[in-house]
Every structure is written in C-alpha cells, then in structure tokens.
Amino acid sequence: MPEDFQVGQGYPAPSLEELKPFIRFYVNSTKGKLDDKPTVRSTLLFAQRFVPGFYEVTGNEIPSNDSRDLYSWVERDWVDGTIKDITQEKYNFMVADFKRTMVAFWVRDDPFFMRARIGAYAPLAKDKFTKGLRYKHIQIVLCRTMNAPWKIGWRVDQTWVKNNRDAEYHLFGIPIWDQDTPTFAGALHLLALALSDNALLGYSSADDIWEQRIPPGQNEMELKWNKKAEDLCIVRETTATVVSEASITTRQFNEDFRRVMNNADYFKTATIHAVRRALGAVVDEKYSRAQVAQVLTHKTQEIYGQDYVAHITRVDTVNSLLGNKPDTTLADYFQGFGQFNERGLPSELPAERLIKLQYDPTLMEIDREIEVAKACGSAKEIKNLEKRKKNERKKMYTAELKKFQVEWVQKRQEWKILTRGKLSPDVTERTTKKRALCNVMPELGRLVKRMSSDKPLTFDDKLQVTKDLHALSTRDDDVVYLPLGEPVDGCCPASTCGASIDQ
C-alpha cells in the first residue's frame, strides 16, 4: 500500500478478522501512560472511537455484530498478556489539601509565573476563544444579614457541561455563599478582577461597592455587569506584560496546578477530577444522586457512580460491624493527598543534576543540528530546532525532578524511622523572595498575612482584601517603587520636587 494512501469515502468496511490485527498494531505502536503499552480500558476506548469514526470518513458502517465482538475481544478475550487491565488509582483532593496548597501559594517563593487569573473553567486549546467562564455566566447578589450591612452570594451558570452544545442554554446553576475564611472568600477575588476589567455597572472601586446598601423593604440586591463586559472571559491567559482575551486552556491549568502542588510539598499531583471526587463524596452524603450529578455538571446521574468514586472505600467496616460510631478519618487519609505531602520537598533540581542534564545525548544532538542550521539553514529552521530543544529539555527536567523527589522522599521517610520521629527535620522555608516582594508591594504583604490565616474576615477586612487584590491585579511592574515612593499624577511624590517621572 502506498505511503500516501488515505482511507476515504466509499472505502469498504473491514471484517472482524481485519480489525483485530489493526487494534494489535495500535497497541504495539502506542506508548501508554500507566504501562509501556495502552491498558485494556484505553484500548477499548480507542476501538469505540474508531468504529463510528470509520463510518464518518467512509460512509460504510462496520456491522454491529463485528463491533460488538471486537469490544468483547478487547475487554475479555484478549488474554495473551500484551495489554494489562489496570487503572490509575483515584484519590480525593480534600479541604485540608486545598488549604495547605493555597497557603503555600501565597506565602512561599513562586518558582514560576502563573498564566491564569483564576484556576478553573479551562477549555481545550481549540475552544479558548469561544468557551470559558465569562461574566454573563455569574450573578452576584448582596443579601441582608444580621452582623453586617450585607453578605455576598453568587451563582455560577455551568454552561459548558458535558453533552450541552448550546452556549446560550444554561443547563445547571450553582448558588455559592461567600465565606469569612480568607482561603474560601472567592467572591472577593471575583470582585477585584471585575473592577480590573471595569465589568461592574456603576462601581469603579472597592469603596464604591462597600458603600452600597440594600434598599429598605428588600432582602437582596443584584449587582449588574456592563454590557461590554458580559462576554469577557474571566479565566484568561496572562503573560508578564499582557492579559489575553483568550481563556486559559486545560493543558495550561493542569501544568500550573501541578506546579502549585509541588510548591506545597506534594510529590503526587492531583487533577481536577480529584477535586470533583472530594466534592462529590461530601455532597453525596447529604443530597440525592441526581443533585450530585448536577453539581458535577453531568446530565446523567449514572456518570457519578462510574467515574467519581475514589479507589478506597469510605465505609468504616469494623466499627459498623461492632455497632460503634463510624470514624472516617483513616479513610480520609487514604483517600486524600495528605499522604503524599512531605514538608521540605525540593521543588528544583540540585546544581549537580542540572549540570548533568545539559550533557544529555538528545540535547547535545539537537545542539549540533542547531549549529548546522546556523551555518546553512533558514531562520525558521533554527527557531523550530530551538523550540524543540526547549520542549525536550522541559520534559527531561520534569522527569528528572520527579525521580529526584521520589529518592528524597524515600530517604526522608527512612530518616523518620531511624530517628523514631524524635528529631525535627531541617527544613528551609522558601520565603526569601516573597518577603522581599512584600517590602515593595505592601498590598501583597497584607494578603500573605490574611491568606495564611484562618481568622474570619470582618466586613471591613473584606473591603481591604478586595482593595489589595484589585491593586495587585492592576499594578504596573515595569518599574518597582518603594512604599510611598510611587508617582503622584505622574510626578515625584516628594513635596520639594514634583518633577515629571517621564522626563
């Protein structure tokens, strides 16, 4: 068969005897994530995608009895050891994991630049200009309360749920009460971003919002968006100098989430599914299965039972058998990511390993190709080779760091046993750079103290937090000024000077 041959319209449907060797070819030519080859589940999913896909391309349908037998063969009858029936262990990202991660995010030095303004609602790259969380998907309501002029409640319309292809159809909505605990005061972040985007109708500062009162005779008052901001994406890509109009992508979110967890001393990374499983486990105890499926943005409640259960049961079997009160703390430990947290976990490779990485044969070969391209190649060729080297080095660095962390954790755990846990490990907190930033960015310093504390926020505290978040998101970092040294109306703040800073 010619190398450039392509299957097209009218190509005859293969028989079952032809499909089996094709599936074997797929398995033998594909690198798996959990094993050297794809697992039974991933192979079955490939077969289930191929069958309807073949019909879409050729117009000829593979007989249903052949497809059914093919699926059965992959799932049950293929027993020669080529593929393994294994699945990835599922853990839950617990509240304690979230708090630990967020505190580290605010307090510790940042080893990377966050590319997102909010870490959620991230579509695939191909949909980043059309999907994503937008202001029109959120309603903010000020609600009357006893101990303050109002408290914040908001609703998120989950437009992009699975199987919902109509962007104007808000299939599910979730009401959220904002919390007094700083880590869970999400509405304050939302208000700060909205102020930065000039998205709120009639408000240009946090002070404007906090001056608002609910009219007599009403218990709620809804805030409105400016028309021009309704379609503006909130979860946007950012660089050091530019905030894009495009949404952050799933790949970018996952990569940044991995880095955030690594910075919080986790040597195993969670996914958004781990967050959803933890949420599902909690609400499943209090609400119906249909309501759980709604919260997890699925049309069908069966999906929750199939895909959102951790691999460790939460049932306390022995205490239940003995008639004692169930204790789920042990199950929470085995289900959660706390077991994969080791204080002091290195987040960067040591110098000797970093130097060794530079002499990797693959990178050195690319360097030789770059030298050849510089001598007789085009600028485009050089750029592609440099990009290839950067991506290859990034992949190698990630793998080598993971290997180093595994070795470090093993040695640390052995040390705990040998010392009988009576000695505290020597841990150097990575906060030097963050403390320096706090000196020149007072708003960051205040936020670090707030976000690392469980002390409830008062009504006035929330005003200050919103102001600081707004200042942080709009700060011009081209020039860094010391406190009280920032220009006033473009001029030197010193009363005896007043010279234009631009001169």
From TrEMBL:
- Any Pfam family matching the protein: DUF3435
Domain of life according to the entry: Eukaryota
Q: Which InterPro entries match?
A: DUF3435
- Please identify the protein, giving its name as recorded: Uncharacterized protein
Source organism (scientific name) = Aspergillus keveii
